[in-house]
Specification:
Chain lengths: 238, 250
């Protein structure tokens, strides 16, 4: 007779999870330990933890990829404009080499704060690589792209970063940007590639610059629009 | 063979609905018709016709299958060529896709009387290129501000970049008689004022017909059957038959 296999006991790495959460500075889950509500709290906190960059607190690469895929789908269907900016800290290696890695970390954190402060709460700011950042700006009209990107660039430029006692440096970023293709299905990878091409240009043309992919000029002026609607009586639909 | 690009500027105005039902009406009149899903990946043609194609244009592009294998016959008597979801990768018009599409057009040329290109919405390079393959451009527009603006933008760009001088309009979801004529007139007025002055010859907009707002349309879409088959006597279906008749005379 076959021995009945032992009933598998769920092996939750709860202790390890709590250690990670405690270390991350996230609030510990509330409720009776072991209760459903408490477990839900642990899962929620872990989800939060796994979508954040540990050093800067920004969205990490994983969260960024997810958000980008969602956004490009949305734009394909809704036709709403959306801008992707990719950013790179200029001469970051020099900071590390000159002032040490702690100073480098300080620069990364300061840039993260500057980025968050210069965009809307609905925009997603992510750290996608060592000194590389990205910002997804949903519902950003083509006419405002340049303004927003310039605001981000200037904000970083003007921000002093302490690197040693009594010692401050300023750092700059190069920014590339591209709008998602409206009404057409595209891929997130292609969108990143287009923004990166512009970032490469900004770097090549001297850094501390914004380069956005030229968008097709708006083909309908306000004058034309006005005339188009002038005498036409639109019925109330629905 | 006549190639007609069906385009709209704005999405969701019934472009695919019009294409499929026109194809059915043309087929009933003895034409050999092919609807080509030129919205590389985002078209709803397969959904509308309840098709689950195994072989698509994507397989033809990648060389896995021949073109005839990808052409599906539909019960309403016409044929469709679906892009397939793999076409998502082709959302930008590369030289390779241009050549592939051109090859497809050349190959289907002798086999059909009429090809309808169901293009994507908007005026991306993909849409502009697929429209450039067509002899005629049929613009589907609804009497709403956004649709009117986007249709105007499409007409303007095609006039300026492809030298198009005639556009055929189908005004979908009209709520009262004469609304299609009013839409055409309004568009023509702005074209006359802002587009035509810079051109060698004026752009003319022709109204092929109104398709009235009709509850039968919703029902046919929900049942995933063609209106022309399900309710051929409904007002929208009768209107589409009339449009098809005009299309044959062009």
């Amino acid at each position: 007779m076959d021995p009945t296999p032992p009933k598998p006991t769920p092996k939750l790495q709860l202790e390890r999870a709590l250690q990670l959460l405690g270390h991350s500075g996230l609030p510990m889950p509330e409720g009776e330990p072991g209760s459903d509500g408490w477990l839900q709290g642990v899962v929620d906190a872990l989800v939060e933890l796994s979508s954040r960059d540990a050093l800067t607190g920004l969205a990490n690469r994983r969260a960024f990829d997810l958000a980008l895929a969602r956004e490009i789908d949305r734009v394909a269907r809704s036709g709403e404009p959306a801008l992707l900016l990719t950013l790179d800290i200029d001469h970051f290696k020099r900071v590390n080499d000159t002032w040490g890695h702690n100073a480098g970390d300080g620069v990364l954190r300061a840039v993260a704060t500057a980025l968050i402060d210069s965009v809307r709460p609905m925009d997603l700011v992510a750290r996608v690589g060592g000194e590389e950042f990205a910002i997804i700006l949903p519902n950003c009209a083509a006419a405002f792209g340049e303004t927003v990107a310039e605001r981000v660039r200037r904000r970083v430029e003007r921000m002093p970063v302490p690197v040693a006692p009594g010692q401050q440096i300023s750092c700059t970023v190069s920014i590339g940007g591209a709008f998602a293709p409206q009404w057409v299905r595209s891929t997130a990878a292609l969108w990143v590639e287009r923004a990166d091409q512009q970032l490469y240009l900004a770097k090549a043309q001297g850094r501390n610059l914004v380069r956005l992919e030229p968008t097709a000029v708006s083909v309908v002026s306000n004058e034309e629009r006005r005339l188009l609607f002038e005498t036409f009586q639109f019925q109330d639909h629905e | 063979m006549t190639i007609t690009a069906v385009t709209s500027g704005k999405g969701g105005v019934g472009k695919t609905f019009v294409s499929a039902n026109l194809a059915a009406a043309l087929a009933r009149n003895g034409r050999r018709v092919l609807v080509l899903d030129a919205d590389l990946g985002l078209a709803n043609l397969d959904v509308m016709l309840n098709l689950f194609p195994k072989i698509t244009l994507h397989d033809v592009f990648t060389g896995k299958h021949s073109l005839p294998e990808a052409i599906v016959s539909v019960s309403s008597g016409f044929w469709v060529l679906l892009a397939g979801s793999g076409m998502v990768e082709y959302s930008r018009m590369t030289l390779e896709i241009r050549e592939q599409l051109q090859k497809v057009i050349t190959e289907i040329e002798p086999r059909f009387d009429h090809v309808l290109l169901d293009t994507g919405a908007g005026i991306s390079d993909v849409v502009l290129y697929t429209v450039s393959l067509a002899r005629d451009v049929l613009v589907v527009v609804t009497p709403e501000p956004t649709s009117l603006t986007d249709a105007y933008a499409t007409i303007k760009v095609l006039a300026q970049t492809q030298g198009r001088r005639r556009f055929d309009l189908v005004v979908n979801q009209t709520r009262k008689p004469g609304e299609g004529r009013a839409v055409r007139q309004q568009l023509q007025q702005v074209v006359d004022r802002y587009v035509n002055p810079g051109l060698d010859a004026p752009v003319r907009l022709e109204l092929l017909g109104d398709v009235p707002s009709d509850s039968a349309v919703r029902e046919s879409v929900q049942r995933r059957q063609l209106l022309q088959e399900l309710m051929p006597g409904s007002p929208a279906s009768v209107a589409l038959s009339a449009v098809a008749g005009k299309l044959m005379d062009l």
